[in-house]
Amino acid sequence: MSSNTETNPGLRRAAPGGGRRVPVALVVTVLAGLAAVAGGLRALLPALQVEQPTAANKALVQMQDFRDALYYPVQEFLAGRDPYLPQAMLDNWPVRQTFNLYQPYHLVLHMPFGALPYKTGAVAFTLVLLVLTIVLAVLAAIELRRFVPVPVLTGAAVISALLLSSQLGKAQLYLGQINPEIAVATAGALMLRKKHPVWAAVLVGLAWIKPQFGAPLVAFLLVRGSWRVALGGTGIAAAASLPVVGVLVSNAGGVGNFIADIRANLDWAEQTAYGAVDSPVAERVDVAAVLFRTTGLLPPMAELVTLVGVMVVAALLVRALDRTGDDGDSVLADLLIGLSITIAIVHQPGDVLVALPAAAGAAGWWWTRRTERPAWPLPLALVLFAFPFAHLFALDTVLRGLFGEQFALTVDGIAIIAAWLVLVGYVVVRVRNTGRRGTRQDEVASS
């Protein structure tokens, strides 16, 4: 009979001299934890060293998303004006980018950071982002633990260390982006939708802070039958935003003026070098934008067509996976949802963080089924998914030197879309095989 030491990877037999060896899991946890601490301290440096924004240094990239999408929009709101009006933001504050159509409650939720002196607010917000990045790693470790016996603490330490040393992880903290917040909300909602629907609804409400996350997430939740979570979260976001909208309408001088400001915001976004679908230098990873940057083609209604196409294909496959009742199929469905949200509508590389916990779970599930055929599609999809994380400065320099700047800007999107395509193909085959096995079992039972 096998002993516990043979089945538990965290334990090892006593050493020949009589002493007990240090558990491997403990060593890995400590080393990874130290690496994560070092990465976290390094990630705080941009906020600690950031300059006070001025008209002369507004091209500074360091903490630019905190500056342009949080701090000065809150300042504009506190000054009794409408931060959604692009020209006003550019005229009144030292920003390089205008304020996009975040949910209005964003201005109140993040007011504690926007009301502080700039540098203090930047450091405080970066600390919150650091905590949320670790929380995201914990969620990934929990998903991994569902399939392989890796202690959650060990998994969280390793994933935190990798995440804080990756390009995407470092970029969130260097730029002051709110992606870790949305990633935790989106992944958490998918993980908690059955056992803790109330908390899942709260997280859906938080995911709505960027409608390009909230809207597709709600659509997928409805497809999966979690309509209370979907509608409850949407209601929470609406209830939180309505009072802010009332203040904004008053600041704008009426409903008509506020609507005109929103239209101006949308028109501005379509013309910017960083946001337009047909911009050759945008870092967008959605299908329509990547199609333009790789082929130069932009068919009529390309964004709408790709949005509907990706969502419909993913929704059908998610429904098929959910019908099996298998835990592995459930995590594959979550991964497909995360990737689909990222490529269906305007997104940038860092937004793929929403799929990280599901990717960890899928990796663990594959490890337990690695002898099944076909064995290669899922690992390939996960490697492609991981490419943007590994797209560090040194690699970027090589890519720019070999293939040019536009390829370097586009390759993350190509990798994410390729990961989605491989995963879709794998799921189609898996669903068909599952259906055939079910048919054969029914035939045997009836005979």
Architecture overview:
The chain is mainly alpha-helical. The chain has 3 domains: about 25-55 and about 60-175, no CATH class; about 180-255; about 270-440, no CATH class. The protein has 21 helices and no strands. The two termini are about 40 Å apart. It holds the Pfam family GT87. Keywords: Cell membrane, Membrane, Transferase, Transmembrane, Transmembrane helix. Belongs to the glycosyltransferase 87 family.
Largest sheet: none
Percent in helix = over 70%
Q: Give the ordered list of helices and strands.
A: HHHHHHHHHHHHHHHHHHHHH
- The Rg value, from CA coordinates, equals 23 Å
Distance between the termini: 39 Å
Give the count of helical stretches: 21
- What is the number of E strands? 0
**Structural class, judged by helices and strands?**
mainly alpha
Average residue pLDDT? 90
Low-confidence parts lasting 5 or more residues at pLDDT below 50? 1-15
Question: Can you tell me the number of structural domains?
Answer: 3
